[in-house]
Amino acid sequence: MTTPLMLLHPLGVDHRFWEPVVRALPDVLGEPVVPDLPGHGSAPLPARDATVEDFADAVEELLAGHGPVHLVGVSLGGIVAQVLAARRPDLVRRLVVADAVAVYPEAMRAMWRDRAETVRRDGLAAAVEPMEALWFSEAFRRDAAETVARVRRMVLAGDPEGYARTCEALAVADTTDRVGSIVAPTLVTCGADDAPPFRLAAEWFAATLPEATLGWLPGRHATAYEHPRSFAEAVAAFLR
Questions:
Q1: Who contacts 162 (Cβ-Cβ below 8 Å, separation ≥6)?
Q2: What is the tens place of the pLDDT at every residue in 98-108?
Q3: Which domains does the chain have, with CATH numbers?
Q4: Pairing of strands 212-217, 69-74
Q5: What does residue 109 show for φ and ψ, rounded to 5 degrees?
Q6: For the residues 209-238, what does the mean pLDDT come to?
Q7: Which positions fall inside the AB hydrolase-1 domain (predicted)?
Q8: pLDDT tens digits for 109-127?
Q9: Which residues contact 132 (CB under 8 A, 6 or more apart)?
Q10: pLDDT confidence band for 1 (50 / 70 / 90)
Q11: Quick one: angle between helices 145-156 and 125-135, nearest 10?
Q12: I want to staple 226 with a disulfide (CB 3.0 to 4.6 A). Which of 55, 94, 154, 219 is the partner?
């Protein structure tokens, strides 16, 4: 029986983030399980003081009906995936950590706290421009404007409080003491033009995880969305 594949999305979007990747995945992998993380899409809000461990709790509850999975997470989803793989090795057969960190540098932690305040005050429109600049290359923003607009609409349709609480969870996230206990074979991927903290984190994961493979992909932070075929091919090759 094929091990199910679960995909965990980044901040501010929902399960629809994965639609381009799902279309590019080979049929032999089956239909992926693509949940909404707390505070996103149809999922309930996380608690006001939620941590990424609480997000992992929500995913673990979903896995009660699916059993072990191959787990793929981008950014926020990648941090949640680390937590789950570390504490429940029986539930994660193989792990893909994409464009994620174990802990944000202090400047980014402050940025997440500021972003939470800004979104509560000014709404999600205030988060769109910095998100697009981080996620997508200038060429993609210019040449695939409608695709970028779909992501923008996804963000704007979200819950500002859910976004803010997730930002606060990211500000305190730290899996550095957990990573060494991950036993699942792991593919670490990162956009070659992603921001420096994510590129440095990819190299750190590759050196720290007991059984890791590092793969660089084209694009910036949302390489999975900008280059879904390249991302899907990398994941499929790793799972084979």
A1: 38, 39, 40, 45, 46
A2: 999 999 999 99
A3: 5-239 (3.40.50.1820)
A4: unpaired
A5: -65, -40
A6: 97
A7: 7-234
A8: 999 999 999 999 999 999 9
A9: 141, 148, 151, 152
A10: low
A11: 140
A12: 219
Mean pLDDT lowest for which of 25-29, 32-36, 144-148?
25-29
The structure tokens listed for 160 are 């500002």
pLDDT for 153-196, tens place per residue? 999 999 999 999 999 999 999 999 999 999 999 999 999 999 99
141 contacts 132 by C-beta, under 8 angstroms: yes
Q: Identify which of 163, 182, 2 has the alpha carbon closest to the alpha carbon of residue 78.
A: 182
The structure tokens listed for 68 are: 């072990």
Contacts of residue 225, Cβ cutoff 8 Å, sequence gap at least 6:
17, 20, 21, 135, 136, 147, 151
pLDDT digits (tens, 9 = 90+) for 223-236: 999 999 999 999 99
Span 35-50, mean pLDDT?
97
Name the amino acid, one letter, at 194. D
SS3 labels along the chain: CCCCEEEECCCCCCHHHHHHHHHHCCHHHCCCECCCCCCCCCCCCCCCCCCHHHHHHHHHHHHCCCCCEEEEEECHHHHHHHHHHHHCCCCEEEEEEECCCCECCHHHHHHHHHHHHHHHHHCCHHHHHHHHHHHCCHHHHHHCHHHHHHHHHHHHCCCHHHHHHHHHHHHHCECCCCHHHCCCCEEEEEECCCCHHHHHHHHHHHHHCCCEEEEEECCCCCHHHHCHHHHHHHHHHHHC
